[in-house]
Amino acid sequence: MKTALLIKEIYMEAFRDLGNFLIKNYLKVFAWFSFAMFAVVLYAFVFRVATGFVFD
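Predicted structure:
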């Protein structure tokens, strides 16, 4: 019984750490994606202003 509890604890700890790793990396990717999309929007706005686009 003690062996089964030790194996259970090892797996629970491994999956707990794996979850934190995945969430941390997902948030990093999401942050870079958001920054890239903001840069595209900023570029489009500056391009429109520089070419004399009329905002009516």
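Summary: The longest helix spans residues 2-50.
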